[in-house]
Amino acid sequence: MYELLKKDGMAKRGTFHTVHGPIQTPVFMNVGTVAAIKGGVSTNDLKDIKCQVQLSNTYHLHVRTGDATIKKLGGLHKFMVWDRPILTDSGGFQVFSLAALRKIKEEGVYFSSHIDGHKIFMGPEESMQIQSNLSSTIAMAFDECPPIPATRKYVIDSVDRTTRWLERCRKELTRLNSLESTINNRQMLFGINQGGIYDDLRIEHAKVIGDMNLDGYAIGGLAVGESHDEMYRILESTVPYMPENKPTYLMGVGTPENILEAVERGVDFFDCVYPTRNGRHGHVYTNHGKMNIYNAKFELDERPIEEGCGCEACKTYSRAYIRHLMKAKEMLGMRLCVMHNLYFYNTMMEEIRDAIEKGVYQAYKKAKIDGMNIK
Length: 375
Hints:
- By secondary structure, the chain is of the alpha/beta class.
- The protein is built from 15 helices and 16 strands.
- The chain folds into 2 domains: about 1-270, Queuine tRNA-ribosyltransferase-like (TIM Barrel, Alpha-Beta Barrel); about 280-370, no CATH class.
- The chain has an 8-stranded parallel β-barrel, surrounded by 4 helices. A 3-stranded antiparallel β-sheet has the order 1-2-3.
- α6 (about 125-135) packs across α7, α7 runs parallel beside α8 (about 200-210) and α8 crosses α9.
């Protein structure tokens, strides 16, 4: 259940109640594709860096280790020793990103594993069955993510198929939640809004899926090639037609600026690999902009990555030491940079929630963007 606590313009501050505990929104979900955050970050570390929700991927866990095995081991929470919410992506985006290897049919998608090439079929029912086996808190509907650009005709057909697939997902998850063998029989379902960069298709689809009274709603098919301005335009036109009493999730987004702009337009949930991927390459976020820790100017710099930051890296180590670790290709350097970046993102979300509660979100957003020198 989503509890709307405060609005500041379109920005929403809420609490999403789940079987694995409450989620304070707006929230950034830390991405652990294969049930782990890349960079040697443990679940205890995740609690230290204020992670509320961990996101894992249906497709990747299905093809490697296997959802049936994870079910035998008690589900994803027990498997990775995590007692807070987990959202599982349906696998749809990964399937459709393997464009040369897949064939879309009404029943689902036939494709080849990116690991060993073996043939796989996944449709709405299969995606729900895998996610039920994983026993995540929130399951995402299986959808088609159309490419950008795509013709209007292609997008219309794709959106219609996504709607039909959503009906099948809802029916199958209801069945799975009724079974005695299901680990989490209170698994939630989020539907996904599609429509490319066609505002009218996005709005119509938002209305259609909004009437289905799901647990939450995502906006998919963005951050896949369109400009930031196009993404913001789609959010401005579409979010007002999403149910206000349910969380709105912008999938795969994004940079600190993307998040700040999307919160202003009414988005509650975010996920992105940027903070972990950038951290693994020595790019760290600060309130004064993004820093490349490899730069020679940090060789003798005894300051932390950011003064006043509460993460393990900043409380303990210098820029000079972390730079040394990264240049020496020591795993600890990667881990510290990833932990710092996730701490930065999760702290920014705390600040966002506080600013909305106080009714000063616009001023906060401007100060944050100006401070980070975002052009």
